[in-house]
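Fold description:
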Amino acid sequence: MEWNNKFTYPKSTRSIINGSRHYALDGLNLPSVTTILKVTKSEEDKAGLAAWKERVGHKEAERIKNEASNRGSSMHSYIEQFLLGKFNLDLLNEENRSKKMAIEIIDNGLKNKLSEIWGTEATVYYPGKYAGTADCIGVYEGKETILDFKQSNKPKKEQYILDYFLQGAAYSLAHNTVYNSRITQVVILLCTVDGLFQDFTIKDNELINFQKKFLEKVEQFYKKIRR
């Protein structure tokens, strides 16, 4: 695994506009990929989320969301340290769940698979449309790849992580557009709180289809905010 700084990723300033994350780039405030996905959620998905909040209670739902967010941020930080060559396994605290989850992803998903790193926590953008932060970009199992690291309370099935695929597709499309790269796959590396590792891949024509679906969501997003 080695670094190859073949691309220069832009510095950007994140801000919250009308309650949604944006990136200041090229003199514009571009909506984040996650903002676009949130605004364009289907009515069915919105109803499902509302039903869950009612079932567990709004206070408990907020607690679960914040706990997952904090755990995910910590896990990402540990993986980033590993990619930057700063990760110290000797400091592992058995009670540190986020670190243990990060190690599962490192051992099962990155070692001997990720051969070249182009960027980590790298800002990518599609000119005039959207921006986001890719967890890792590089060469994975011989292919130019967008990698995304996820955590979950329980195992996932592909049909329940379509937003993950759309997010990765958005980053790959932006990167290929700006840098003329040939990213042909998106890999999701996930670990549950119980330490179960899962990986999911979309590539080639399947990835192209997700890129097209995301562009449709971009159009939906701009139609909504123009109303």
Notes: The CA atoms of residues 74 and 98 lie 6 Å apart. The longest helix spans residues 58-83.
